[in-house]
Design brief:
Order of helices and strands of chain B: EEEEEEEEE
Strand content of chain A: over 45%
Structural class of chain B: mainly beta
Distance between the termini of chain A: 36 Å
Number of strands of chain A: 11
Oligomer: heterodimer
Helix content of chain B: under 10%
Distance between the termini of chain B: 35 Å
Strand order of the largest sheet of chain B: 1-9-8-3-4
Strand content of chain B: 35-45%
Shape of chain A: globular
Radius of gyration of chain A: 13 Å
Number of strands of chain B: 9
Shape of chain B: globular
Largest interface: A-B, 27 and 23 residues
Largest sheet of chain B: 5 strands, mixed
Radius of gyration of chain B: 13 Å
Helix content of chain A: under 10%
């Protein structure tokens, strides 16, 4: 299957700082990527849709000014958690679509964020 | 909200077949069923998908009932490495926007 990478795999930061997470499709191009968040013992929750060359669309309840998304190329989307607080500590996962109609989503390995 | 129902957890003996059911009674005729799994602290891994016919690949088999209201994922010879949470996603939203339910936590035991 297609490969998606994320960087960093884990990050620890102080409260109030900003953290950038990169999501790359290594062997395919993705006009759309998705960002999910997962808290311990819970399922994945879709945060936003990252659109290459245009603004991201956010799910209800997700603050667009706090979670900045940039999709500058067909292989890279970034999620920046601004002014991070302890409640933002979570596992962040991205996905991109590959295949004939970019239907099948392939997921990155995830980034674990811990805000102290 | 997810539109699928799966058992919360299941156990399976190593080497035996693991049969994971999913109810997706609201699916319509042209909507796919996809299965992913998530091993602890990793991103979800694509397993298989289907529309009407049964499907098989190197990882698993997917059996979809004739009325398409339910499906079963079959891992023919489960190993300890198959221990994971298995997610059935139906309908699979065109464009890739996935809504995950709680999934089934499969424990493969020696």
């Amino acid at each position: 299957g297609a490969v998606v990478s994320q960087h960093p795999s884990r990050v620890i930061c102080k409260s109030g700082t900003s953290v950038k997470i990169e999501c790359r499709s290594l062997d395919f191009q993705a006009t759309t990527m998705f960002w999910y968040r997962q808290f311990p013992k819970q399922s994945l929750m879709l945060m936003a849709t990252s659109n290459e060359g245009s603004k991201a669309t956010y799910e209800q309840g997700v603050e667009k000014d706090k979670f900045l998304i940039n999709h500058a190329s067909l292989t890279l989307s970034t999620l920046t958690v601004t002014s991070a607080h302890p409640e933002d500590s979570s596992f962040y996962i991205c996905s991109g679509g590959a295949g004939w109609y970019q239907e099948t989503q392939y997921f990155g390995p995830g980034t674990r964020l811990l805000v102290l | 909200d997810a539109k699928t129902t799966q058992p919360t957890s299941m156990d399976c003996a190593e080497g035996r077949a693991a049969n994971l059911p999913c109810n997706h009674s609201t699916i319509s005729g042209n909507e796919y069923v996809y299965w992913y799994r998530q091993i602890h602290s990793q991103g979800p891994q694509y397993i298989i998908h289907g529309l009407k016919n049964n499907e098989t690949n190197e990882m698993a088999s997917l059996i979809i009932t004739e009325d398409r209201k339910s499906s079963t994922l079959i891992l023919p010879h489960a190993t300890l490495r198959d221990t994971a949470v298995y997610y059935c996603i139906a309908p699979y939203n065109q464009g890739g926007k996935l809504i995950f339910g709680q999934g089934t936590e499969l424990s493969v035991k020696p």
